[in-house]
Amino acid sequence: MQLLPYINKPIIKAVVSSFAQGDGLDKVQAVLSAILNYYFLIANSFLVSFSSETPQKLPPYFNIRRQNQNGELQHWAMLFILDKVVTSAWTEELYPMLQTVIPKDRGCWIILWRGPKLHFFSYLNTADKSNELDKCVHDEVASGSLHIRHDSTQIHRNFNLILHTVPQLKGPVSKGAKDLSKGTA
């Protein structure tokens, strides 16, 4: 079944349209939960959970996971809700936090919310400490700042790609690292 962009669903459109800059965490959580649960269905073995308090001092975030029948992690994305502007300096601050929650040699999609815009990245926690946030891991994933109302078609494309793609190492797989394009743990 081909999904239409989230903005075409009346209930999601109503939630997104009612969002205003400066709305509190509860309203942001409602908007993002509606959008994420539209794409990442529990019927497809995805689990979307929200956390606002973490020992790693992470900002509030959604954790989007899919596991196979053996319980092995197959797919992972995290959406962080920020109260500061997304800059390259801020993404540097994010690295140590990501290393505490993402297993070594695993790929993960990172989505940053700075209301009402989303920023899409990929992240690979490598053993050789060359980890970094990549804005352009996939040619078809739009990077930059995408507005939830005005850029819903591109955000829709990004979420569809995220559903079916696991971030992977660039170039040849380094010695001892795993090829994450196959979704192996």
Structural descriptors:
alpha+beta; 24% strand; globular; disordered C terminus; 185 residues; 7-stranded mixed beta sheet; 28% helix
In brief, what are we looking at here?
The protein is of the alpha+beta class.
Write down the secondary-structure element order: HHEEEHEEEEH
Q: Tell me the number of strands.
A: 7
Oligomer: single chain
Average pLDDT metric: 75
Describe this structure in words.
- By secondary structure, this protein is an alpha+beta fold.
- The protein has one domain (6-182).
- It has four helices and seven strands, in the order ααβββαββββα.
- Strands 1, 2, 3, 4, 5, 6 and 7 form a seven-stranded mixed β-sheet that branches.
- Residues 169-185 have low confidence and may be disordered.
How is the secondary structure organized here?
Layout (H helix, E strand, L loop, with lengths): L9 H9 L6 H15 L6 E6 L9 E7 L5 E9 L6 H14 L4 E9 L2 E9 L7 E2 L11 E2 L4 H13 L21
Parallel strand pairs: 3-4
Antiparallel strand pairs: 1-2, 2-3, 4-5, 5-6, 5-7
